Each structure stands twice: as C-alpha cells, then as structure tokens.
C-alpha cells in the first residue's frame, strides 16, 4: 500500500473529477388542486396557491413550484413552552435531551483517492428488504457530528418509514471513523462528498439519490450542488446552514456563543488527539501545538485546517468556503430551512436575493428554533425536530414527481425536464 502523504495544495475544482452520469429529472408538476379547466374553453387557468402561515418567511424562485406540496406550513409555528423561550435554551435542550431512536448500523469504509478514509453507516438489514430502485437519502451531519446524533437518527427513522434507503456520511474522524492521512475535512473540500455520491450511484444505479445536510454539512452540500455540474442528486435539503462563514465566525465570539465555540473546539481537539501521530513532524506552515490546544474553532482552523487545504489565512478559508456564493449556481431542487434566531447560523447571512432569483430554490425561515433545535410540532419536546415532516414531504414530492413522469435516472428525455 502506498504511503500516506499530506494534501498540502488547494483542492482541485470538482469539475476536474471524471464527470458522473447526468440525471434528467422531471420538475415536479403542481398538484391537480392548483389548476382548473375553464368551463368555456379547454384553457388551463391557475388557481391561487395555498399560503403558508404568517409566522413563516417563505421565499424563493421555486416558491410556486414546491409550496403546494408543503401543507405542513399552513399551521402556525408553535414552539414548545419554556424550552423554546430562549434560543440558547432551545439549542442546548435539543442537543442534550432530545431522544435518540435505536438504530443498528452496518458500516462501510471507503478509501479515497488520496488514501483517506470515509465511513458510511447504512441501516443494518435494509439492503435485502428494499428494491433496487428505492430512493436513497444521504445524511450529512454538522461539525464533529456523526451517525449517533439524535437529529440524524430522527430523520433516518422518518425516511425509512416511507421506504427510503438511508446512509449517514461520517466525515473523516467523525463518528469514530478512521483517519489514515494527516488530513481531516473542511468546509472547502468537496472531494469526499463527490466520491460518496459517486459510490452510492454505482451501488444503486436504478435509484434516485437525495441528500440532507445540517449546519456545516449543509454548507458543504450546497457548495457541492453549486460547483458540481454533473451531480447525481435529484434533490437536497439544507438545515441551519451558516451560509456566510465570515459572519458566522464574527458571531461565534460574541456573548453566550463562546460556550458553543469552546464546546466545538473541545470536540475537535479530541478527534485530533486520537490521530496526533499522523501529524508528527509534518512541518510547513502547520501549527500543531495551536491545533492540539485550540480554545476556539478559529484556533483549530488556523493551526491545521486552512493549511491542509492551501489557504493563507483563516479569513481567506472562511471567505472562500461559504455556500452563500454557490446558491446562484444550484440547478438541483433545493429546500433551505433556517431559524431566525439561530445563534450559530445568523439570519443576516442567508443569501435571500440569490434564493429569490434561483428557480430551483425555496427558503423557509421559522421565527424560532435555535441551532438544530426546532423544539416544536407534534413530537415536541423530546421527539423529532419540527422540520422533519416538512423535509420528508418535500423529498416525497420530488420522488413521486419523477416516478409519475416515468423518468428514470438514465432517461434522456422528459416533459419539462431539468438536467442536474
């Protein structure tokens, strides 16, 4: 086996990867309730679209296209008393006290082109039970997150109940995944996601593939959608996306947010220390001591991450890794859900104008929710986040639209088709 080498240069653009087969999917047509035939002619006359409750901000170029399928929005957003009274209380409560469904995984480790390792956790026993054309959902957890996180498991359970095949993408070092080279993952590097999507597409060529990402995982997912011109994904959902990492970094060092910063820095230090020998005598611009003793996420990124991926400074790394710049290029149906009071993904960083102008995007902003909280809905306070039924409705709408149209992943022609 070839010896591992650190990846010191800026990662190549994804367009340099061998192109994946393009997928042509039919834009989901509006439900029959959204149109009517005129009694005096055969002309189709649009009816008024269902309106979401006033408690939500709902915008996007795909608003008219996707809104009819999201009946869940007709109900007001009603946060659970007390736990959702404060954005920090909600964020911390959801992180520590939300239930975690029991899930038995089957782990599959992929070796990447640079000799790195990726851990994919599939639901054990599902493969022989589901047909080969069952839709596949890839889940991308947030920074230092993995397949054991409660919000990941709740989404997995919801998707499985609809007959979906689900896999959790544990980034390098996360979810107890192995690290085989002196390189972890970052907001800038999309190569691992490209390899995961390619691998899943190879395993299930008859299936439509979708993805859901949270926090940093959402940022990586949206950047992938914007920069990969041959994506195999038929749809995606972004949750609590920081979007603008420069603004997110500014807020990370204000007031109570320092608690989150220190907690994430500790998690990064623990991952690093498990694999510290890989970085011994690495040299160059690396500041291993700073990373090993990082008091903040910024310290860790300065000592290790930005150097691994070829950036001259942390600010350059954050500026060039923000998914807000990718929205205008997204050609895949994309639902973005944010909380107006998110302490980690500030609302002012949402690229609202680009979302409004992109015919493939829809944005929903809830008045409360904190970060990865959303302690509201029928399953509150200990059950699944408020967002889960909405996400499943959106994904089901996309999947049913492709099935009804008779469009398969290999089809080249379809009415109102969209190449993604």
From TrEMBL:
<dbReference type="GO" id="GO:0047372">
    <property type="term" value="F:monoacylglycerol lipase activity"/>
</dbReference>
<comment type="similarity">
    <text>Belongs to the AB hydrolase superfamily. AB hydrolase 4 family.</text>
</comment>
<feature type="region of interest" description="Disordered">
    <location>
        <begin position="1"/>
        <end position="22"/>
    </location>
</feature>
<feature type="active site" description="Charge relay system">
    <location>
        <position position="371"/>
    </location>
</feature>
<dbReference type="Pfam" id="PF00561">
    <property type="entry name" value="Abhydrolase_1"/>
</dbReference>
<keyword id="KW-0719">Serine esterase</keyword>
<dbReference type="InterPro" id="IPR050960">
    <property type="entry name" value="AB_hydrolase_4_sf"/>
</dbReference>
<protein>
    <recommendedName>
        <fullName>AB hydrolase-1 domain-containing protein</fullName>
    </recommendedName>
</protein>
<feature type="domain" description="AB hydrolase-1">
    <location>
        <begin position="135"/>
        <end position="372"/>
    </location>
</feature>
<keyword id="KW-0378">Hydrolase</keyword>
<dbReference type="GO" id="GO:0034338">
    <property type="term" value="F:short-chain carboxylesterase activity"/>
</dbReference>
<dbReference type="InterPro" id="IPR029058">
    <property type="entry name" value="AB_hydrolase_fold"/>
</dbReference>
<dbReference type="InterPro" id="IPR012020">
    <property type="entry name" value="ABHD4"/>
</dbReference>
<feature type="active site" description="Charge relay system">
    <location>
        <position position="342"/>
    </location>
</feature>
<feature type="active site" description="Charge relay system">
    <location>
        <position position="215"/>
    </location>
</feature>
<dbReference type="InterPro" id="IPR000073">
    <property type="entry name" value="AB_hydrolase_1"/>
</dbReference>
<dbReference type="InterPro" id="IPR000952">
    <property type="entry name" value="AB_hydrolase_4_CS"/>
</dbReference>
């Amino acid at each position: 086996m070839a010896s591992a080498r650190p990846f010191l240069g800026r990662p190549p653009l994804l367009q340099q990867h061998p192109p994946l087969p393009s997928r042509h999917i039919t834009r989901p047509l509006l439900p029959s309730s959204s149109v009517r035939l005129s009694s005096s002619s055969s002309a189709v006359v649009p009816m008024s679209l269902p309106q979401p409750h006033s408690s939500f901000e709902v915008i996007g170029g795909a608003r008219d296209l996707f809104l009819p399928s999201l009946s869940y929005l007709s109900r007001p957003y009603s946060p659970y008393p007390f736990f959702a009274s404060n954005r920090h209380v909600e964020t911390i409560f959801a992180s520590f006290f939300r239930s975690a469904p029991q899930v038995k995984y089957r782990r599959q480790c992929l070796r990447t082109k640079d000799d790195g390792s990726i851990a994919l956790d599939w639901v054990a026993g599902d493969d022989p039970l589901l047909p080969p054309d069952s839709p596949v959902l890839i889940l991308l957890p947030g920074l230092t997150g993995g397949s054991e996180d409660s919000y990941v498991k709740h989404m997995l359970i919801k998707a499985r109940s609809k007959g979906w095949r689900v896999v959790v993408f544990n980034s390098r070092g996360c979810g107890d995944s192995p690290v085989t080279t002196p390189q972890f993952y970052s907001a800038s590097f999309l190569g691992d996601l490209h390899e995961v999507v390619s691998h899943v597409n190879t395993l299930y060529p008859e299936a439509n593939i979708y993805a859901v990402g949270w926090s940093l995982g959402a940022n990586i997912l949206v950047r992938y959608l914007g920069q990969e011109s041959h994506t195999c994904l038929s749809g995606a959902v972004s949750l609590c996306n920081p979007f603008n990492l420069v603004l997110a970094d500014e807020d990370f060092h204000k007031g109570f947010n320092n608690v989150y910063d220190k907690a994430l820095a500790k998690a990064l230090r623990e991952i690093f220390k498990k694999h510290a020998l890989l970085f011994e005598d690495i040299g160059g611009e690396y500041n291993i001591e700073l990373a090993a003793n990082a008091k903040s996420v910024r310290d860790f990124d300065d000592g290790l991450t930005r150097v691994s991926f070829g950036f001259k400074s942390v600010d350059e790394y954050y500026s060039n890794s923000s998914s807000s710049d990718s929205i205008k290029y997204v050609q895949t149906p994309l639902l973005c859900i944010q909380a107006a009071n998110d302490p980690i993904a500030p609302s002012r960083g949402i690229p609202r104008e680009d979302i409004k102008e992109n015919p493939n995007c829809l944005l929903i902003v809830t008045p409360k929710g904190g970060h990865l909280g959303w302690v509201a809905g029928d399953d509150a306070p200990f059950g699944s986040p408020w967002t889960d039924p909405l996400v499943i409705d959106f994904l089901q709408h996309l999947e049913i639209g492709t099935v009804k149209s008779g469009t398969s992943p290999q089809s080249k022609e379809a009415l109102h088709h969209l190449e993604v």
